[in-house]
Amino acid sequence: MPSQVIEVIDSHTEGEPTRIIYRGGPELGDGPLPQRVIRFRQEFDEVRRGVINEPRGNDVLVGGLLCQPHDESCSFAVIFFNNHGYLGMCGHGMIGFLVTLKHLGLVDSGEHRIETPVGVVTATLQGDHRVTIENVPSFRYLKDVEIDSEPLGRVVGDVAWGGNWFFLVKNLQEDLDIRNVDRLTWLTKSIRDQLTRQQITGIDNAWIDHMEIFAEAKSSDCDSKNFVLCPGSAYDRSPCGTGTSAKLACLAADGKLQPGQIWRQESIIGSSFQGQYRQPSEQELQAMAQFSESLTPEQPVIVPSITGSAYVCGETKLIFDAADPFRQGIPV
Ligand code: PYC
Questions:
Q1: Partner of 307 for a Cys bridge, out of 11, 115, 274, 290, CB 3.0 to 4.6 A?
Q2: 230 lines ligand 1 (CB under 6 A)
Q3: Of 230, 324, 320, 323, which Cα lies nearest the Cα of 44?
Q4: Are 148 and 316 in contact (CB under 8 A)?
Q5: Catalytic hit among 74, 222, 240, 250
Q6: Strands 86-87 and 76-81, sheet pairing
């Protein structure tokens, strides 16, 4: 990589950080977003690693590349990534993205259609910090999957799509306390490894890379508390937007949450997202043809909305000196 400067805006959404590249990032052309992700991975992956990994970043950080949309109905596009690879969607990241666009003077309050590699998300900015995203259609794919995890014994959970693939653990009683994150991280990584060993996947053999555990909320305003393991080893400081979408899909499939009913999801650090869902339109169902052949009427599809707040916390020029032996970041 020659010497290069990449300009980024850092924000956090309910505690979870996002770093948006808005100048100096890789040129991926103007094709469909999934094709651009392939190009990013094949030709510019050192940019992802250099922006996210130490010494410029860390394993908690989610990055996003601001792009021109391919879909003409959208005003912007974004490709999210972390230290492990590329994400389909990112809920906290999308909330941070909109607040970043506002900070850059690129959007005003109101509704904006944003293209991602897994579909269009409608994001509504209220003031400077509060954002509601209407996420891509979400659903539960597998119910009550049992795995036999060596250190934990029998673990039961659901597999659901909320813009990323999730395993939502149902039968573990764990203390979801910030002081317990080492154990929670070890435990969710063990479950993910076991799912891989047992070849339990999402549709089209997709790797289930996000794990979720739930417990009773500590805040009286919330309905549930979660711990979310992201791809890699970091846990989500926010309640995870795509994870909350997957949770809403499971609640809807079980008849435990009705359209329009509010669900408040508390994070491991005590922040929260407010969620609800509506039924998808025919057009929205047709647009998810890649999934619909694998779904039956017992697997209802929902359109989740997630509301949370983000704050800009940094404006940085990242310098990639050609002579720096760690310019591509320290691989973890
Ligand atoms: O909010 O969807 C989310 C997310 C995914 C990974 C980290 N945060």
A1: 274
A2: yes
A3: 320
A4: no
A5: 240
A6: antiparallel
